[in-house]
Amino acid sequence: MMMANQRTSLHYGALLFAFLFLFADMSGMVLAQEPQVDELPEGEAPILIEGLPPLYCGDELCERPTRLIERGDRASSEAPMWWLGYGPDLDWNGMDDRLQRVLAGEPSVSPTAMIGPDGRKTVALVVDYAWHPGASEIAALQGVLHDHGWIGEEGGAWFQVMDSIDALVVDKVPVSALMDIYHLDGVVVVEMQNVMIPFNGVASEATRSMPSEDYTASTYERGYTGEGVVIAVLDTGVDNEHRALNDFDDIDDEPDSDATSYNDQKWVAGFDATSSASNPDGTVDPDDGQGHGTHVAATALGTGGSDRVHTGSGMGAYLVDIKVLTDSGGTNSQASLNGIQWMINNKDTDWGNNDSSRGIDVASMSFGSLSSPLNPDDEGDNGSGAEARLVNDANEAGIVCVVAMGNDGSKRVPSPASADGAISIGAVNDRNSVNRTDDVLASYTNYGPRLDDGDDDEWDELKPDITSYGTGITSASAATGPSFPGQPERPLADSDYESKDGTSMATPLVSGIVATLLHADDTLEPEEIRNILRNSSEERGSASQPSISNRWNDKWGFGLVDASCALDKVLDRVCTPLEGGGGIIVDPPPGGDGLGDDVTMSSPTNQSLYLSGNTLSIEGATDVGEEDYLEVQVKIEQFYDDGDSFELTSWLGADGTVEQWYYDLIIDDDWIDEDEAYTLVYARALNAAGEASSVDVRIVHMTRLAISISEPALGTDLVGFVDFSGIVEGPEHDRVEYKIDNGDWVLGDTLSEQDEGTQSWSFTWDSASVADGSHRISVRTINASGVASDVQRRTYEVDNLPAAPDFAFSGSVEVFDAGLPVNNAVAGTVLEVRFGVRNIGDLDANEVYLRLDGPGDDSSTYPSEGKITSLDEGESVRVTLYWWATEAGTHDVTLSLDPSQQYEDANRENNAYTFSFQIDPRPVEPMLRFLAGASRTQPEIPTPGVPFDIQIRLDNLGQSDATSLNIGLERYLDDVGSWTRLDDKSINIVPGSSTTSGYAFTKFADVITDPGYVAYRVVLSGSGVELEHSQSHFNVTVSDLYVGADVPISLATGETPVEFVGLDDGGLLFTTIDGELHARTVTSTLTTPGGVVIEESWGGELAVLERDDGLVQLAWTRRSLSLEGYVLTDIAMTSISVAGKTTPKHYHMPALKLSEGSYYGFTFDQYDGTMVLAGYHRDLSTGGSWQDLTSIFVLSSPTPDRGASWGNAMTVLVDIDIQPADAQPLAVGLGKEYLHILYQEYRDDVSGVERVGLMYTHGALNEPSWSFQYSVGDEASHPQLHVIVHDDDTDRLVGAWIEGQGKTARVSTISTNSIWSNDNPIRTSTPGVRTIAMALQEEGVYLYHDEINVYGPVSRMGLIANQHGETTPGLSNMLFVGYTFGIGTMEEDTIVCTVTPAGSYSLTKVVSLSGSEKTIESPGPIEILLEYMPGGSDSAKLRFLGIMVAMLVAFLGFVIVSVRRSHSELEGMDALLSEDMDSVELMVDIEQDEGPLLLIDESEDELTVSESAVAVIVEEEDTLAEELEKKLVDGEGNARLERRMQRKQQREMGEMAAALQNGLPPLPLPGQLPPLPGLPLPGAPVQPAPLPLPDLKREAQCPSCQASFSVKDLMLKRINCPVCDAPFDL
User: Fold this and answer.
1) Measured between alpha carbons, how far is 734 from 749 in angstroms, rounded to an integer?
2) How far apart are CA 966 and CA 988, in angstroms?
3) pTM over 0.85
């Protein structure tokens, strides 16, 4: 029994005591003085708590406010004076104790913290008011925030007004603003936002939700599965396309990104509370990028797929997916508050699915507040935090909230599990057995009691409520990774399962059980559910608070959950005991009528009719007054018309107790027999000796009420009027009804009266009444007694209109500022709006136009309109439009697909999407900032000894102009260890604007004599300059490098690059298209003439490396089909030359079924001729135990083109805790000492938040099971590693990786040895960095990376280690615009492949101008000719050249003989002609043309005469070769440059030789000699050869623009200027 024992709260006692003193004082004044009105004191002496820093107001201790605030007529959502019981607030002053520790100097723990204007990490707050905050309170709070330099919503801060609680939620708050917020009018509590983190099959059987051999009376066996109940899963999102989550019947359930594409979908609504642009109408389907939410959802309501394995405890329930945690797993509670508030607002929403899936009934919350160092000895929350108060509101609204207790393993009740209205769940370890007798409390689970909230209800503090199974829970696995390049969509979750531990896993088990209870009785209130769960649980442990409850235990709660007993209590039955596993089963004794008529059956009644699929409930009572019965048994036997019978069941032990027993079972469809005469149900009781009582009998009938659809057949396209027909089977035929999609049931056919049997039905439906597309047709039959059959559903394509595309939005809409996601922005920001578009129609589309409509200005640079070149049927693409948001306010932004209605889209309702977005006004006063990208050099890479410019950009984020500023440039001198001022510049004005940032440039000059890096800083001074923003530091790498022009790459439609590698004479670009892997050749001039197909069934993984011999080694995952039809994956290898020639492929690693595992993240390296490949191997089957283990494998070979030389893989590390979606390729380096590897693994140390860490390991190449491991990075990704082997045979490691993401991302670089003795990497801020890559040159190791700054996405480069591997902090020089895709080396040059945000790729050469002084001899003519001869060796080329020379000599000899013979014949003919004909001479006077030249076109039918062009002037940009030649002529070159020019000349000579060879005509066949030209007659005078004419031209100068140019036509008298187009006379 649960009995409340009241006690007086300490807080309320103190408050009452204060009121008594106050009343006594006032009474005395009334007696002694004239009546007057006195105000209550606003402050009292502070309460000092040991270990808690007091609150200071200036230099004095702050008075403690009484907070006795009367609301008057002001509206409020919460009870009066609730704040007096808030905790954590030990000193009772309204300031969260954790914030007081921050004020005293402790760092903030907010995941969204940044360095504020006060130099400290910002905090995230919930500001609570005595009344609901209105416009004045919002303005006052925002005013204080802006006074302290708050970045505002435009800078990515969160700001939200809550509906159900009187609070404002805000983050990124400067610490300096806390006291001003504390003193705002109406503020009663300043809360620190909790950091919410996720708390991470035998279990469903052990809870008696699913059947087992150990226990009877499971809820599933009795037909209660949560049908018609809606569970909201508040977590990291759900991949509801998983086969366990997409539908109910698990038929035709191929994973589909469209959650509504199934006949019987489980998903009914969703909301992304972490996104500011999420549509609140419930149509958003947020994906799970972390894996936690999908696992939780399937534990609660998963069907287990068609195999019904790993089923949820409430498998019949519907799903509402509310994303409140980011993909990193943890976030401030602002998203949780947003999600819970949305859930409350939609308690009764009609989702448009069906009548049984309205609103939200149950909330499963597997998250809670993180234990914080700001609250030592943290015992959690007392139920007064913002999240807990919202959970109470949800409880009052009728939503059952089931919440995890947390995984600290300590006495701590986090929020929102601390809420009075929460059903708080602890975790138990079932030890992998169904039997509950060996169950133990999980070591990680939190326990209670909760901190006192100061009210009179002592039961509120009894947390946890119950415990459930949370260890080793196997449930659905999400597809958390990005899509393979070239594929249209992200990967879809299918049928994978994984095991997780935590109170997160225990909580959804109970949520599913709650659904089964509501299935049994949907009128139950949340408090009734809580009491049923408490009183039905299996009592464990002794009572910890016997004065309050005689069974509650601080660790077990009221006990271990028992779904069967809970259902019994709902059904008002006696619980089936756990002991004995269902009792004994013995055969009845022979003969006799039994011991007595002691068993009476109350249900079923005689002549009852039961349909297939219905539940047959057998219930009764036993009289134990005379006999000591141990058990009751039941049996069912069916009798047929011919007198035969068949036992449908043997004697089965009943549930409940002997005195009050029952047995529920579902009528199996196989039991239905048309020859049945009747069926008997027997019941009897047995004693210990096996003697039975008299048998009680009831007669029932079983039949099938069913309907089937015969026509139209599946796959038929419906056009016009459609005839539907089928068969009805069952008793009392009456009618057939149908409905279309989620519409109402409509009468389809009236059946003939028939007591039993089958008959046909039919009706006609007009398919034109609905739009074209997929539609679900549902039919059912209802008999004369009103009993309805199961619904039969078919989905058909309605196609009345001609084939046409149907455009729809897919995925989420995201808003980005400078490439980083934001929730709001400041006026004048150009925002990227990224979204997905899908063609769900039946026709491909080209040139699909898109438009964004939002208040603001148009930008030609960032267009708000765009187009999709092609969008095939069923294809999805991601696109970006831009919004120049120049107007402040909250605006509706609309995205439109095909706005001009170019296509006949049958459903235009889904062609527009509107969301709200907040644009804040810019600050009035000047706000000067050095933003990312504020410094750059010209040229991009300064050359030693050559002057260069440094350009500094200063931005003004305010509306007012900034004037009279001074900016100075300083360089750091290593030899003296201090800064030296180089120059000062003045800035007259930096303009302000209300719509966009103003900025000004300042240019400095410097020269550095030695290569390496230089550290600079700029110092700003003047009026209005803030000290914390007055400096900017940057480094510059100085080197003999030169940046060439970019060369665009032309790609085919749908082709996507995946990797790039450089070679000495070119490179290779690997791409994918339609699932194939291609290699495209890159020439030395950076053109891509062609390519080859590497793999037609590419598995998505690729590793490439340039080998020592100049070939490229590549490995990739290949997919193949086994003889049994399974898709298998293994690793394929080959090598390829720059010309695209490949060696024979060879295959490695055991071929895995996709359901058994995968290979991913592998990388090559080579040293001293030996090549290695290392990668991850995820093993899901693990020998049949399905434990999901990930290990690192290594393959090696001294002769990589020989497949057999690679041998067998060695496993060097096992049990790596990482998922493929969160892992990038390994960083692998082979040295003299060891093979070195950087790999990723989850970690949750220090903060308790699970995130991806970076680990280092090494070991001997041929040894398995390495032991050395070292943690090197946090929140790390994209590791890179290079090994430099020193002369003493020791390895030097140069490593780099990315830490963090978005605006706070950094690149970490390090140089260390094999034991990682240097643990202090250099971290460089690189906002938005996505890719890093290393290039080894003679002078050291360069790192290329990208970032997003004021110029957009740019690529940068810097020297991070010298030639000895010693650290050089040279990051980084800004090179050019575009994201870094990859790099390659071409001789001593580096080729950088970049990609623009629009998806255009290009190549840029970073030329090395330095090198050794060794000269290169020019090749001779023979060598040049051999270079272009076919053949694989010099000897073969020489043979070919000899044949060609011989053929040329023969041809020339043949020509000479022929000419001489013709000459003799012509001489004879000339002699004959001279005798018969007189000579005639013609005098020709050549006249010069005047005026414009004419062009006669004789190719047309009519003669056409037109003027020719007046003049053509072609101005060509210098090529890279010409630029280098100019440098050589100008004396800026060196030996390296001279060698490059010699190679250039060699290539030109080779091209001339090739052209000469190609120009030779083929040898003529005999008799096919060409006619010879006429030869001069004998004696005729020999005319001298004409002299070459000079290149005649004259210079001209335009009188209008003074442009000078050359004119080659000397006859022209008038011409138009090619520069300004002005005509003038020559």
Assistant:
1) 9
2) 9
3) no
